[in-house]
Design goal:
Rossmann fold; single chain; alpha/beta; about 45% helix; 8 strands
Length: about 290
């Protein structure tokens, strides 16, 4: 056990990508959500994905903001195809996946198409079949949802194994994060959430923000909130966003990059989902069932 922890800590301190882990385990599916926009949710999704990839995971990041896609913009990528081309039968899912930094793979969003929860039965089946192509080739699927409580956000969060809620210490962010947790718990029986405090002044500040939201949520809602960690307010991160290069790549020794590495190590220790057919297909089937 100590050897495993030491290996994990060495991985966090290293910029080199580890050898991918062997296949054969179910895919871990994580939905990253936020009550409001502007809290850095996509930035969190990208940098967590890169950090998990550096730990040896095969990571796929799906841009699920169908109206305001920006994962490709944040990474400075030029994408020709997206999920809409898969729905139209023009491309396979593997053909629309693009390579990002540190081995991270990305499914670009299909901006302007109907919400995932509004797809036809035939389109649902097509997406399920498309994702089934990836069985055995993936360890972690990160879903960067839209902000708020739109139908697509609810569907992704209900279907995912883990829901990470990104929040900042401002009244609107806290209020809207609570509203998101309330809707998912009361109306859709999602009972566990992981909270990530972004742009915090200190580690203690991030912990206090979590305790504030957890106290109210657990008092009035039937939920459990776990603390994933905090990302400090960091000028290096701001510069990385301007450069369209993730902070975990451009400034790997920055405070923000180190916090992402620590959280990736924590995520890597979460229990993996169980199931004979793996969690990926279950996720996709649950996604479309929740949409109807």
């Amino acid at each position: 056990m100590l050897n495993d922890q030491a290996a994990g800590l060495r991985a966090m301190q290293s910029n080199q990508v580890q050898t991918p882990k062997p296949s054969g385990k179910p895919v871990r599916v994580i939905a990253v959500a936020s009550g409001k926009g502007g809290v850095g949710k996509t930035n969190v999704s990208v940098n967590l994905g890169i950090s998990l990839s550096k730990l040896g995971n095969r990571v796929l990041l799906m841009d699920a903001d169908m109206g305001l896609a920006n994962v490709d913009i944040m990474l400075g990528l030029q994408t020709r195809y997206n999920l809409a081309h898969v729905l139209d039968g023009e491309k396979t899912l593997k053909e629309v996946i693009v390579e990002g930094p540190a081995g991270l793979k990305i499914i670009p969003a299909a901006s302007g198409i109907r919400r995932m929860a509004q797809l036809t039965a035939m389109e649902n089946a097509g997406i399920i079949n498309a994702f089934s192509e990836l069985n055995g080739e993936l360890d972690v699927l990160i879903i960067d949802t839209a902000a708020g409580i739109a139908d697509s956000v609810v569907s992704f969060c209900r279907a995912a194994q883990e829901v990470v809620v990104v929040v900042t210490d401002e009244p609107a962010s806290i209020t809207d994060a609570y509203a998101l947790i309330k809707v998912l718990s009361r109306d859709y029986q999602v009972s566990r959430f992981r909270l990530l405090a972004n742009m915090s002044r200190s580690a203690q500040h991030g912990r206090q923000l979590f305790e504030k939201l957890a106290r109210v949520s657990e008092q009035f809602l039937d939920v459990t909130l776990d603390y994933l960690g905090s990302v400090p307010y960091d000028n290096d991160l701001r510069e990385a966003v301007q450069k369209q290069v993730p902070v975990t790549i451009s400034y790997p020794n920055s405070a923000a990059a180190k916090s992402f590495k620590e959280m990736a190590y924590a995520i890597d220790s979460w229990p993996v989902p169980r199931g004979a057919t793996g969690y990926l297909q279950f996720f996709v089937e649950s996604l479309f069932q929740s949409g109807h």
